[in-house]
Fold this sequence. Notes:
single chain, four-stranded mixed sheet, globular
Amino acid sequence: xxxxxxxxPVGAGLTTLEVLDIHCGQGQQILRWLAYxxxxxxxxxxxxxxxxxxxxxxxxxDGTVLDADLVLSEVVFDQDELFVEYSEGPIAFRTRWEGRxxxxxxxxxxxxxxxxxxPTTWLEEMDLAAEGLAGLQDAEQQDAAAGANDLARxxxxxxxxxxxxxxxxxxxxxxxxxxxxxxxxxTLPQFKAMLQAAKVTSNTLPPDKLDELLAAVxxxxxxxxxxxxxxxxxxxxxxxxxxxxLVHVAHTRFAAESFFTGPSNTLLSTKLLSMLQDCIxxxxxxxxxxxxxxxxxxxxxxxxxxxxxxxxxxxxxxERCQIKRVRSRVLQVDMRYVAKHxxxxxxxxxxxxxxxxxxxxxxxxxxxxDPYRCATLLxx
Length: 380
């Protein structure tokens, strides 16, 4: 594999470009390696010392900031072009890419033991006020302490039901027309379809009203901070946007239904819980549970024995699907990567479709489809 790498100083707007040819063999390296190789070759060409240039960003042709830990052969093809921005350092890759955690993936306990962060850390650290939720609270909540307590309760509700909402997010993003690389992002039509099936939208809350609402969610200070203070070049919104959008919808739904009754002192957390319990859980989960329960009959003693026998082979297959390499003891494979390899193996798209795969993924990752007992998982 040979790639054309166009280099430019960070902040130059990709206008001052120097083209390099980087030979990558079979492409089993990660983008981080490519960026350092490009900077080293650039320094050699200019007669500078090694380390003179430090990589900051790897970008695709359309300007999207790429995850530096992705494997080359899974992202680009032979003769493709990539952009690398550099600076004088000393810290590399200061530019955030979408999905890059704000905190290190691992922490250390007092005894020196490695401790994995909680799967709910992303939600616990979310600044709900910066996400625009404080502005949804009714004016009757006069003191700041009451508003803060209500936002804390909103967070509790979201943490309690995050696992259930993750399942719905996956189920509605996995349409037959959805590209595999986009199953971690929900489009506006998919969001509207979910709310319509949950009987959230009505004559008083038409689907068209959601367009303005979702634009506000994606342009909030909290969303921009999560995404590195830059607008995403990809369409749709991620799981965090989805969670915040549901709170906005709960507020708008309650305001529409109580239009004729005048102002209300109802807490934002109460509005959210009401929508989840009376609409989303009641109308969406019975069908989801039916589809997942149908899969439980496949786990016969013979099937379980075969899975135990092929455990090592399964682990090797999952490692092959791990196109993002990071230093970690626990093998964690993104579902997009699994789906991409299922497609390469001639299974996805021929033996089964993406909408049929979604319940299988939920069955594999969740011990229960009860919305009150679902486990919260790392964002997919």
